[in-house]
């Protein structure tokens, strides 16, 4: 594998690096997917030496993994440390000196990973450019975490700053949901099964639900989350990305741009939300006191760091229509929230009812619908719910569940970041987001953001440990439609 010689991690001591990036990179070390010459540079504010950083890394590995002495030793020795403030140009000169002059096998191939607060993105990008770190090396790349902007205008500003310093093929906009194997399986499940694709349209599907539920709260992220909220933090990126995979047409091939072209077509087909219709298609809520997993939970406004008069939504639900030939008339219901009854991500597809004339005036006249459910996390499972005749003397239906786990017991679960980091190393952009996807996703939800910013009305309270505001039921178009909370 021709991996880069350097990966520079900005914010190496932060939460994202500690809980996601470093463990995922270590996993790649364990399975032998890192080039022997690959070197990491940890860039952070703490007044540490390389030896201090390596001791810190050894502690992280010891706390999170069973001992693998050889792999841990190799991994730790790959690291060097640079103390630097993101705003200090001198720190970037030290980084330039550390990387050294480019020559075959050294310094010619560098990844800059921005594991930092979104407010610092523009400053770091500018400083990299001013230091010549956007042009000195021949194959460098820059990885930008979500959120990519806080609205359409800021997303365009960030993108313009990136393009002033880097070419589009060097930019990797990361959404870790696309690295989840169960999410990638949506693509294969749809297009590799001839019995599925003919049913995947408005003629057979009644509606689609996409749920990302969390039983956790905001933790120590109040400073970020109370400015962002669930609509920006989850719906604009994760849920809309999953929607594009569910709704897209088959691409002409598996090239990155061919796949992303089809995703953008879906986003362009989403019906515009007019300002006077926001309350009919979108709903927000904040969790109140309650109980989750046996623990008493404070209300959102009582969480440390949250403003007492906060209007920020910890729950968001939205109804979306994709107005194209395949999906016209099929509503997509998206929801995400914190402090809900359980943690899971689920795509639930309800099929249309069959004509019931055949079963008129029998117990089969009012039958349960067919469902297809694709669980993404923590379970990775596919379930079909069909109907069969109950054994006996009468024509009585009963549910038949066809259930399968995505992976076998002996197949290891990969963290989404491990997949995405390996793709960055190998220069594969297929699971990363093109800017027109970002732009269209902001255009979809911006009318909702604008309306919610202008009013404090219709901010509903739900008990922590519940499934969200009961008012969310009003988003459904038909009396028989309701939220599917689990498998």
What would your notes on this structure say?
- By secondary structure, this protein is of the alpha/beta class.
- The protein folds into two domains: 6-145, Rossmann fold; 178-413 and 432-475, Dihydrodipicolinate Reductase, domain 2.
- Helices cover 33% and strands 21% of the residues.
- The chain is built from 13 helices and 17 strands.
- A nine-stranded mixed β-sheet has the order 16-15-14-13-7-12-11-8-17.
- Helix 9 crosses helix 10 (256-269).
Can you tag this structure with a few keywords?
single chain; 487 residues; alpha/beta; Rossmann fold; Dihydrodipicolinate Reductase, domain 2; 9-stranded mixed beta sheet; 6-stranded parallel beta sheet
Helical stretch tally = 13
Annotated CATH architecture of the largest domain: 2-Layer Sandwich
Mean pLDDT: 90
Let me know the largest β-sheet: 9 strands, mixed
Name of the level-1 CATH class of the largest domain: Alpha Beta
Q: Can you count the beta strands?
A: 17
Strand adjacency order, main sheet: 16-15-14-13-7-12-11-8-17
Radius of gyration: 24 Å
Q: What general form does the structure show?
A: globular
Overall number of domains: 2
Helix content: 25-40%
Distance between the termini: 41 Å
What is the assigned CATH homologous superfamily of the largest domain? Dihydrodipicolinate Reductase, domain 2
């Amino acid at each position: 594998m021709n991996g880069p010689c350097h990966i520079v991690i900005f914010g190496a001591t932060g939460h994202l690096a500690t809980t996601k990036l470093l463990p995922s990179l270590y996993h790649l070390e364990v399975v032998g997917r890192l080039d022997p010459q690959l070197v990491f540079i940890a860039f952070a504010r703490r007044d540490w030496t390389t030896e201090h950083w390596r001791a810190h890394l050894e502690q992280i590995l010891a706390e999170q993994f069973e001992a693998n002495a050889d792999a841990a030793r190799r991994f730790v020795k790959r690291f060097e440390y640079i103390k630097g403030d993101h705003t200090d140009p001198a720190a970037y000169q030290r980084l330039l000196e550390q990387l050294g002059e480019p020559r075959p096998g050294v310094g010619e191939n560098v990844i800059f990973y921005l594991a930092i607060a979104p407010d610092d993105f523009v400053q770091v990008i500018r400083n990299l450019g001013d230091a010549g770190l956007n042009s000195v090396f021949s194959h460098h790349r820059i990885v930008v975490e979500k959120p990519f902007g806080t609205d359409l205008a800021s997303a365009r500003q960030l993108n313009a700053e990136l393009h002033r310093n880097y070419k589009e093929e060097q930019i990797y906009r990361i959404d870790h949901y696309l690295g989840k194997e169960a999410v990638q399986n949506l693509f294969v499940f749809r297009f590799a099964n001839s019995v599925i694709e003919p049913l995947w349209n408005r003629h057979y599907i009644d509606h689609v639900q996409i749920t990302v539920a969390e039983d956790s709260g905001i933790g120590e992220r109040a400073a970020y989350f109370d400015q962002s909220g669930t609509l920006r933090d989850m719906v604009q990126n994760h849920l809309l990305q999953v929607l594009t995979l569910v709704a897209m047409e088959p691409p002409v091939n598996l090239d990155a741009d061919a796949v992303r072209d089809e995703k953008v077509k879906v986003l362009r087909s989403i019906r515009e939300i007019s300002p006077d219709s926001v309350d009919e298609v979108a709903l927000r809520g904040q969790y109140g006191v309650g109980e989750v997993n046996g623990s008493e939970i404070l209300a959102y406004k009582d969480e440390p760091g949250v403003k007492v008069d906060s209007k920020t939504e910890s729950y968001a639900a939205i109804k979306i229509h994709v107005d194209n030939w395949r999906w016209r008339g099929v509503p997509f219901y998206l929801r995400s929230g914190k402090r809900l009854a359980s943690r899971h991500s689920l795509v639930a597809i309800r099929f249309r009812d069959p004509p019931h004339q055949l079963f008129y005036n029998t117990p089969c006249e009012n039958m349960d619908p067919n469902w297809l459910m694709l669980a993404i996390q923590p379970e990775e499972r596919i379930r079909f719910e069909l109907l069969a005749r109950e054994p006996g003397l009468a024509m009585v239906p009963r549910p038949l569940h066809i259930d399968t786990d995505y992976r076998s017991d002996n197949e290891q679960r990969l963290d989404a970041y491990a997949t995405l980091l390996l793709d960055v190393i190998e220069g594969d952009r297929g699971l990363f987001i093109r800017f027109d996807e970002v732009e269209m996703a902001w255009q979809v939800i911006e009318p909702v953001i604008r309306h919610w910013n202008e009013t404090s009305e219709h901010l509903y309270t739900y008990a922590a440990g519940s499934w969200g505001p009961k008012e969310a039921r009003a988003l459904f178009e038909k009396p028989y439609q309701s939220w599917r909370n689990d498998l």
